[in-house]
Amino acid sequence: MLSGVYRFPQMESVVFGKPFAEALAQEVDRLDARSVFVLASGTLLRETDLVERLRQVLGNRFAGLCAKIGAHTPRDDVVAAANSARESRADLIVTLGGGSVTDAAKMVGLCLGNDVTRPEQLDDYRARIAADGAAQRPAVKPPAVRMIAIPTTLSAGEFSAGAGCTDTQRHVKESFSHPQMIPRTVILDPDASVHTPEWLFLSTGIRAVDHAVEDICSVNGQPISEGAAYHALLLLGEGLPGVKENPHDSDARLDCQIGAWMSMVGSQTGVSKGASHGIGHVLGGTAGVPHGYTSCIMLPHVLRFNDPVNHDKQARVSEALGRSGEPAADAVAELIAGLGLPTRLRDVDVKEEQLDLIAENSMHDRWIHTNPRKIEGPAVIRTLLDAAW
Questions:
Q1: Does residue 1 sit within a domain?
Q2: CA atoms within 13 Å, Cβ hemisphere of 304
Q3: Domain count of the chain?
Q4: How many CB atoms lie within 10 A of CB 91?
């Protein structure tokens, strides 16, 4: 008999299809915030008026701005932003940008709640995953300041209580979490994403596809996550090509945003991911590959590897993508190719001499050890990397 536990995330609301400035004003009033610190994409600050519009909405409640968060959320950038937020006596953080900015805000909250003022102090709070999958998760105090996220990409980290943060000294992306690191509110405004470069919007959409696919195929799925993931694939499978065809199609963009949201229901309730996510984390932290591109390249190969043990589940993926009867790996690969996204590691500047290190480091990611088909060691991962090379 099926059994399990569903735990609701500590998130209060998702506002969708409303202009972000209007939605943000209402949320800030609701929370009675008086000192709002903003983390934003540097590109949005330089090339659009979105950050200025946000500043105008906040008025005298605007407490400061950080627009210097690097890709994959470097430790140094996070701690510098936290120190600035501390000086401003922030009582709310608002983000405007992609996944690196969102993760940075989660980490700022962690730093403020745990008196972190130097990058090396984060060693005390990172998860440690041994090569055999054994995990050590240190006690973490709740973030001192919560956040509102206005995402402009589709990687959907704003719907998670975890954050990835890169130790640039060791070239490793590490995991941090606390239930209250999830935003209090997420605001989905399709028009705020129009300025996102096409490659970034579409590739992070494949990241959301990856969430949904690995939830459907998970070793510990749940009814609510499978239903949400299936519908996420319906929305993303239509919405992403729609945006590719017409970048100003707000309905297609909103479908993608809602699909990305639904792709994260499994993550919120503890459904385990697989090797596409596990290897992807390392490709990001060790080789600097953008999140979305890691899924574009690895997901089809991981599906082929796993097919002998979860063929029936993968059939649901193909069905949701409108490719019933086709192998899921082919259905996903067709979607990626149709969007004009990269499909080989060499296409995203991963060097062949890096593959052994990527394979070794991947064994320290928790999702490798919950992959549906058991991965015995780095040699198996190297086989997947070679297939993707």
A1: no
A2: 14
A3: 2
A4: 18
